[in-house]
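Dear Dr. K.,

Following up on our conversation at the group meeting, I've run the structure prediction for Glycosyl hydrolase 1 from Latilactobacillus graminis DSM 20719. I'm pasting the input sequence below exactly as I used it, so you can double-check it against your construct before we proceed with anything downstream. Let me know if the numbering doesn't match what you have in your notebook.
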Amino acid sequence: MTTHTPFPNDFLWGGATAANQYEGAYLSDGKGLSLVDILPDAHHGRWAALTHPKEAQATQYDFYPSHESVDFYHHYEEDLRLMAEMGFKTYRFSISWPRIFPNGDDLTPNEAGLAFYDRIIDLCRALQIEPLVTINHFDTPLAMLNKCNGWADRQMIDHYLRFCDVLFKHYKGKVHYWLTFNEINMILHIPFLGGGMDVSDAAHPDQIKYQASHHQLVASALATKLAHDIDPDNQIGCMLAAGETYPNTPNPDDVFKALETNREGYFFIDVQSRGTYPNYAKRLFKAKEIVLEMAPDDEAILKANTVDFISFSYYSSRLTSADPAVNNQTEGNVFASLKNPYLKTSEWGWQTDGLGLRITMNQLYDRYQKPLFIVENGLGARDTVTADGQIHDDYRIAYLQENITAMGQAIADGVPCIGYTSWGCIDLISAGSGEMAKRYGYVYVDRDNDGNGTLARTPKDSFYWYQKVIKTNGSVLYKAETF
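The predicted structure tokens came back this morning:
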């Protein structure tokens, strides 16, 4: 019997989490405060806290979702074995910067923090799961907000590189895939999470955000060089919050507006993958009166140290219009978007567009000619536990099936793709809302929005579905296609 699958035999199937949404144990074993540790839950104005973090820091809230999260810190062995049971080939996770350097600018690492990740990485390798590590996933130490307004200050480059140096040396030979910054373009949209900054009172916030972006881009390039110097087998990727933006109409004004919107994200990857600032960015800086301060060798550093692969998150496509009167918008994961009448919309305003993933993959590869790695994709939805303890999440299976099928078609189009790690493979706290109700996982965690629950883990129907997808290398999704 012929197996029909576009996925290569060494394709890395898996899932993804982030320390700040998953680990809990927020002060255990010497850890410093993370950015999210001062944020309240959805009922107490989380978005206001995200946009005014210093006010949030001075406020005492009733409940902080991150302080316990789903307690991966004490459930890591159980969770990793569940991942292995599904057949994971890779697991994407982040290393909490303040768990290793509690204040961000410490000169020596917290050994207890390294020991925790030793346990995770060693168990991953024993279970034949390839670690994929994000170095900074919205987790700049909170202390740096107060000391220097985070990445607005160039000194952050040295602090970050000290962190990287410890990780690359400590995990040499055990970790081969690294991401320098999670969704690096989010610094423009949520500068607190993306850059550990408060720009709420800034006279020229765009100047601060793009200057901080430059600091991260230089840091990423120097980290790429450092990783290759320490271990030539290291593969370093950038990470984009992606999703093709469509024009609302064939009106050329709408088409150009969509082009500009897409470029807002591509700007970062243009620098990380091509090594230079694109001309359209230079025009944007001029129009916004942004003047970047650069060290004499910054441009040479960017040019000489481009990434090995392009990783990205994809949840939905977006839609835009040049007409400000057109304002029928859906939330769509921080990025404002018009409602696309051809797509289904979730409770949280996200629209399902599998073909959009195929389009995004083709656009990224056409633009950069480097291998892709899909490191976030999934559906946030409410799950109901039946009387007999089952979770029937057909809606999640439908979303994932549509997206994974589209990913396979993009690979068949000729787009090289290293792997796929769906988001929140075990239920975790939502970054934007602080909710538990917005679940993504294949495994249900008994915890509610108020922090109640046993934290017991229960596989959902999607757990067994994804297990079959991995076991068949995706062929279960295809019938008679020829690839």
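Two things stood out to me. The first helix runs from residue 19 to 22. The radius of gyration is 21 Å.

Best regards,
J.T.
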